[in-house]
Design goal:
The chain is an alpha+beta fold. The chain has a single domain, classed as Hotdog Thioesterase (Thiol Ester Dehydrase, Chain A, Roll), CATH 3.10.129.10. It contains 3 helices and 5 strands, in the order βααββββα. The chain is elongated.
């Protein structure tokens, strides 16, 4: 799965801890929990960057998830979900996520998710605008982004 992380200013980080309810019968974090963490990171990133008016106007639905699992997470592991935006055009908005173990920095899983923005007024898909794309870019802080 491609999608190398861009510069650190474009990456959102969400700390996580593997809790008892996340553990399956094999003694490690269940695969579906990784999916939840991927979604949690995306939602947290949106809420951290989008102004209130954008959050009131746009919702997101998933069109596709791809997850590659490398290593298991165990009970009590402190983890970090790092997420960033890939290609964002038309009706699709690509997001990449890496979940790493904090104590050794090992990548446990990598995900690629394709989202579609939804207009909350109409309930219909909406195109990815330049403004929407810029919310997730480090260039939003540059003088030219104004």
């Amino acid at each position: 799965m491609s999608g190398a992380a861009p510069g650190d200013r474009d990456v959102y980080e969400l700390p996580l801890v593997a809790e008892a309810g996340d553990i399956d019968e094999l003694g490690h974090v269940n695969n579906i929990v990784y999916l939840r963490w991927v979604q949690d990171a995306a939602v947290a990133h949106w809420r951290a960057l989008a102004p209130a008016e954008a959050q009131a106007a746009v919702a997101w639905v998933v069109l596709r998830h791809e997850i590659d699992y490398s290593r298991p997470a165990m009970l009590g592991d402190e983890l970090l979900a790092r997420t960033w935006v890939g290609v964002a055009e038309g009706l699709s908005f690509e997001r990449h996520t890496e979940i790493t173990r904090r104590r050794d920095g090992r990548v446990l899983a990598r995900a690629r998710t394709v989202w579609c923005p939804i207009d909350l007024r109409s309930g219909r898909p909406r195109r990815v605008t330049d403004d929407l794309r810029l919310m997730f870019s480090a260039s939003r802080d540059s003088p030219e982004a104004g």
